[in-house]
Amino acid sequence: MSADHHPGTDPTSQTLYALTGVAVRYPGGRVALREVDLQITAGERIVLLGTNGCGKSTLLKVLNGLIPPCEGRLCFEGKRMGPALRDRDWERAFRRRVALMFQHPEAMLFNPTVAEEIAYGLGHLTRESRRRRCQTWANRLGLAHLLDAPPSQLSGGEKQRLCLACLLAPEPEVLLLDEPTANLDPRTTGWLLEWLATQAMTTVVATHYLPSASDLGERAIVLGEDHRVVFDGPVKAALADRALLLANNLAY
Ligand SMILES: Nc1ncnc2c1ncn2[C@@H]1O[C@H](COP(=O)(O)OP(=O)(O)OP(=O)(O)O)[C@@H](O)[C@H]1O
């Protein structure tokens, strides 16, 4: 495939994602998303809000190309993602640019040491760059003293920080985070919120923890209990709309 088909090579493209009428049903028929229409522009910081089971994790997996919609159209930089992901070169470029941190990310950890875990996604760098990048991210996430430890021996919060280090070390352009502060202590939570605020990358962060919502982005997308987008607008407006929060089980 020629380079002009690879994600990231269209300089005129500002719209990263375009979703039209996207629906997801899991095997067995459980509906997770209904008629989702959404555009995400490069550099946007989006907070994805909604109650348990409304489809936040599913939407992040759709954006990461892990779950194909059963209805509707999903495009990344103007290309239909389903067919594009079948192209190995396109997929590799896409995976390098777009990173998803799962809600329970420990499942991602499988290397014998913390250092190897962080270095795992850096295969495209030289040995020396890999070592330096690994050290930088271990320092940033307070893991420098654990580089030789097996990931299985880390605490829940340390595992969460390691998962973040693994995800951030390759320096992706699009970051999809599912409840990223769930296991983090206040200092690491503060660090992550401040760090995210300084980044130019596109972020979509799912949370139902409203107090950090306005630190996580400027645009809120609220999924309702019927798995549809019920609000798409400024975070501040969403948080000020008591009726919206009550109707969607985000406040009581
Ligand atoms: N693998 C699966 N198989 C069947 N149903 C699933 C699967 N994963 C999720 N679901 C269902 O899809 C719906 C949306 O789930 P999802 O995990 O996307 O919600 P969520 O908004 O992230 O929830 P939470 O805030 O509780 O993490 C739920 O009803 C859930 O039970």
Automatic annotation (TrEMBL):
SMART domains: AAA. Keywords: ATP-binding, Cell membrane, Membrane, Nucleotide-binding, Translocase, Transport. GO terms for molecular function: ATP binding; ATP hydrolysis activity; ATPase-coupled transmembrane transporter activity. GO terms for cellular component: ATP-binding cassette (ABC) transporter complex. The keyword Transmembrane does not apply. InterPro entries: AAA+_ATPase, ABC_transporter-like_ATP-bd, ABC_transporter-like_CS, ABC_transpr_CbiO/EcfA_su, ECF_ABC_transporter_ATP-bd, P-loop_NTPase. Residues 17-250 form the ABC transporter domain. It holds the Pfam family ABC_tran. It comes from the Bacteria. It is a peripheral membrane protein. It is found in: Cell membrane. SUPFAM superfamilies: P-loop containing nucleoside triphosphate hydrolases (SSF52540). PANTHER family: ENERGY-COUPLING FACTOR TRANSPORTER ATP-BINDING PROTEIN ECFA2, HEAVY METAL TRANSPORTER. This is ABC transporter related protein. It comes from Alkalilimnicola ehrlichii (strain ATCC BAA-1101 / DSM 17681 / MLHE-1). The lineage of its organism: Bacteria, Pseudomonadati, Pseudomonadota, Gammaproteobacteria, Chromatiales.
